[in-house]
Amino acid sequence: MTDRAMAIATKVEAFVRNEVIPYEKDSRLGFHGPEDALVRELRAKAHMAGVLTPHILQDGSHLTQRETAIVLIKTGLSPLGPLACNTAAPDEGNMYLLGKVGSAEQKSRFLEPLVSGEARSAFFMTEPAESGGAGSDPSMMQTTCRLDGNHWVINGRKKFITGADGARVGIVMARSDDGACMFLVDLPDPAIRTVRVIDTIDSSMPGGHAEVDIVDLRVSADQMLGASGEGFAYAQIRLSPARLSHCMRWLGLAMRAHEIATDYACRRHAFGKPLVDHEGVGFMLADNLIDLKQAELMIDWCAGVLDTGSLGTAESSMAKVAVSDALFRVADRCVQVMGGTGVSGDTIVEQAFREIRAFRIYDGPTEVHKWSLAKKIKRDWKGGQA
User: Fold this and answer.
1) CA nearest 349: which of 329, 360, 334?
2) pLDDT tens digits along 302-359
3) From start to end of 19-149, where are the E strands?
């Protein structure tokens, strides 16, 4: 690991532990995620500490994926850490995409406010299942766009759009006659109406997860990313790094939950000795160490693949499945070790369990990734028979 990444990670960890963790009981932690006033306050502190958007350097370049991993793991030590340091989803993935494919004008207008932490963003792709819209299969997309003079007109309904409520930058996916398209949109816009913010198992993301109606949204042609029909190609540029950064952040949270459970097991006595000395408890903590290390190594391996310039589609699927399942086992054991305290709000262990359970669905559920890998296995087998 590079010296610069280690130096940044050390600063980030100190900031999260000393400045962010005390906010975990703040009254502005809403049911649908932290209020924007809290996010702004935390980001101001991160800016003062020199750890705001730490994965993007002063010249606009990014840390490598392997370097990003060590930094984002540290931001994840608190559920509020990624928000404070501006490394949270969907902003981190949207910044990556705009940095890769946005025009100079698009970067100035839409990317810079995200990098500075002044604005939040949302990625409008998923659609309602009850109407047969796009979910894990984006080819089912029903939201349409048509060219009208120098503008595109977009209509559709989106669901589970993280952070839409309160976002200032939107990336909207729609389908033209050529195929999938992506558009950059200033928010709020009266043509994009929040129907509801959905009650979900997690609570760490500002704005929650919204269902929205898009009715005759007019977007200037120069706000399209690339050309008509290129949306799926751009989605692939974003997806693998975004899957992996989820793994990074939630590894940090699982590590923190393990710290708390370990402290509890070493301090709490029952049946004449500390809990950790009871084999059943000690073995659960030992299994945690194994899962955490395997997750860390899986992330590093996949990050190395992405750093070669590969899209890393199969590798990121493998990492997402392995890491999300491992971290869920860790979070579940932490709850179990801590008993009644583990299911209470007295520590962040209960929240870690909820957040990581949702992670097994986000950016593609485990089963979809395994299905994709099985198709690759079959293709590779057929290629070997030729």
Assistant:
1) 334
2) 999 999 999 999 999 999 999 999 999 999 999 999 999 999 999 999 999 999 999 9
3) 29-30, 33-34, 121-124, 144-148
Two tokens, residue 39: 């996010």
Residue 369 main-chain phi, psi, to 5 deg: -65, -40
Whether residue 113 is contained in a domain is answered as no
Domain span at 17: 3-88
Are 220 and 237 in a shared domain? no
Helix (H) or strand (E) segment spanning residue 78: none
Neighbours of 108 (CB within 10 A): 11
The two three-digit tokens of residue 101, written as one number: 């494919």
Q: What share of the chain is helix, strand, coil (3-state, %, to 5)?
A: 55, 15, 25
pLDDT in tens, 33-71: 999 999 999 999 999 999 999 999 988 899 999 999 999
**Quick one: tokens of 100?**
């890769």
Count of structural domains, the chain: 3
**Whether the model pTM is above 0.90:** yes
In a domain, 31, yes or no: yes
* Peptide bond between residue 90 and the one before it cis (omega within 30 degrees of 0): yes
State how far the Cα of 184 lies from the Cα of 347, in Å rounded to an integer: 39
Q: 362-373 burial, b for 16+ CB within 10 Å, e for fewer? A: bbbbbebbeebe
